[in-house]
Amino acid sequence: SFATGTRGCSDARPPLRAAANSRNAITESTLTAPTASVRGVHATDGDVDIIADAARALIADDDHAARAALAPIAGQTIVTHPVVAASQRPGRYPVGAGVQTRSPSRSVMGAVYRRDRFTCVYCARRTVVLPVLGLVSELLPAEFPWHPNWRRDVTHRFYWDLSTTLEHVEAVSTGGDWQAERNLVTACARCQYQKGNRSVADPGWQIRRTTASWDGLTALLPELWQRAGRPARMAAWVAEYQRRPH
Ligand SMILES: [Zn+2]
């Protein structure tokens, strides 16, 4: 489960769907800036480039440059910097059947992410895969903190906003298949949480495909992993993300 490691990023997925289904885990207000009304590309999309710069600096053993890159967003959490609402504003959450979902296999997840070019199908923002974020957190815990249970006053806002997540087009709790690739798409964490159990039939949640080329920063993963001392818990994900589509 996600709550295994004590530091750094587990290679398992966070309990995103479980959290979204839970009444007391995530609420709209925690993910929504009350005064914000943003359409189109989100302002924080540029944070992806900050992470990329920091990761490249870490790979070059230049921690000073990595800290400088992260400085504009250092230590931000969803408590201090709430995630701005998606331009597609959802209505009310439908009541699910309470069906438990599980993560599909690592290879299915990798295939879905590659197919969707690691780009959110709802808001078209680029995302960054969790192992890359986890390694940055491990190497720079003060600037880019992470908590195994995603404590919201600790974990960096980026995780809640632009980390790569697997989204069920039709929620498992309302009858969707939990592992079929046709029912799976790539979503940023923000859209994952804000869409909740809604169907894509609901207004504002249409799937859009990108033609852009984006890899979720997976190309940096092997060297970043090396820099962090090759933590064993991430080995399988490092291998998975080196696979190339046929
Ligand atoms: Zn999104």
Automatic annotation (TrEMBL):
TM stretches of this protein: none
GO molecular function, one term: endonuclease activity
Keywords in alphabetical order: Endonuclease, Hydrolase, Nuclease
Region (Disordered): 1-25
Name of the protein in its database record: HNH endonuclease
Species: Solirubrobacter ginsenosidimutans
Lineage of source species: Bacteria, Bacillati, Actinomycetota, Thermoleophilia, Solirubrobacterales
